Amino acid sequence: MPFINERLMEQAESRPPPVTPGARASRFQFEPDQVMARLSARIVGQDPVLADLEAMLTRIKADISDPERPLAVHLFVGPTGVGKTETVRLLAEALHGRADALCRVDMNTLAQEHYAAALIGAPPGYVGSKEGHTLLDEERLRGTFRKPGVVLFDEIEKADVRVIRALMNVLDHGRLALSAGTRELDFRNSLIFMTSNLGAREAQTRLARYRRGWRRWLALRPTATERIPEQAVREYFDPEFINRIDRIHYFQPLDPQRADGLLEMELDRLADRLQRRDVSLSWQPAARSRFRAGQDIRYGARDLRRRLRNELEPKVAAAMFSHPDIHRFLVRTTGGTLEVVPVMETDPRDGLRHTT
Ligand SMILES: Nc1ncnc2c1ncn2[C@@H]1O[C@H](COP(=O)(O)OP(=O)(O)O)[C@@H](O)[C@H]1O
Ligand SMILES: [Mg+2]
User: Fold this and answer.
1) CA–CA dist 266, 264 (Å, integer)
2) Closest ligand to 50 CA?
3) Closest Cα partner for 248 from 36, 47, 49?
4) Taking the C-alpha atoms of 267, 270, 274 and 280 in order, what is their torsion angle to the nearest 10 degrees?
5) pLDDT bucket at 257, cuts 50 / 70 / 90
6) pLDDT (average), residues 47-67
7) What is the DSSP string of 118-133?
8) Which domains occur in the chain, in start order?
9) Rounded Cα distance, 196 and 164, in Å
10) CB within 6 Å of ligand 1 — which residues?
């Protein structure tokens, strides 16, 4: 009975919000600080961006935004693997309490000539042009009375000019007319995010040069990594497009000092997955710093995850199968190679004992 359930939910949604004494009433049901706490726990090194997002959520919650525009329009610029997509994904998840709450359009994987058709629908009369069919998931982008929808146009610089033109209208009036002409998508209750890595390569090259050269101190200044992408964005997009964006955030490349926090975070997630198999992992400090040192920060966090998957997880898996009755394992290095060995029992001297 999905139909009835949906109707019931709709009714619940339009009921007046519960009144909490001492709190300002709002149709929106989310707590900006709680939402952001979830993000801070998972995204490292992008604190200024997160602080801005919290301010944005607070503004939305006050429900004082122009009702004829999207609730927010933000562009995230920065190199690959620094958390642009992940931030939006986590935000949608934290707001809606569901991992699949995000309406994401990946400009990169769409076939070039199908861009416009896939987004705004094929013109009437075309094969497959059903009643305004579109890539966009209407329910997710619209959100609900209590929660804003979250839309992500990922890697926007790959988009066809026709798509950008259609987007301009969305950013302006919060509406997108599908080409069948009978239907319109409504973005007025949406948070719109776009990402781009324009200028990232140039910034990275410049940064690497600074780090080596006598002007090393320049690499520490955020302007070194912001000015170049900023210029690239201004050269690439028309001023009319840029003018419709509330805020452009420049994501910082993940600097080596962050490697520790990132590794910590990824290892916590691995620990969660292992726990489901009733297995725990401890690290010999030397093994940990060795693993961390092998990280190529240029590829952001993706490189770390790939290395965990390729270099560590197979060893953990092999150890799990060779020692089916053991629940604790130790990661250590021997002659520079990472090893995963079972921990047999506790030794009072170092808290660990293992076979070799
Ligand atoms: N700043 C970060 N903090 C924590 N994890 C990150 C960060 N940046 C990237 N990651 C991890 O790396 C992966 C790729 O990040 P993603 O957001 O997709 O990169 P991009 O900036 O290219 O969109 C994600 O799965 C994410 O968990
Ligand atoms: Mg991305």
Assistant:
1) 6
2) 1
3) 49
4) 0
5) confident
6) 94
7) HHH-PPTTSTT--TT-
8) 25-253 (3.40.50.300), 257-342 (1.10.8.60)
9) 13
10) 42-46, 80-86, 195, 254, 262, 265, 300-302
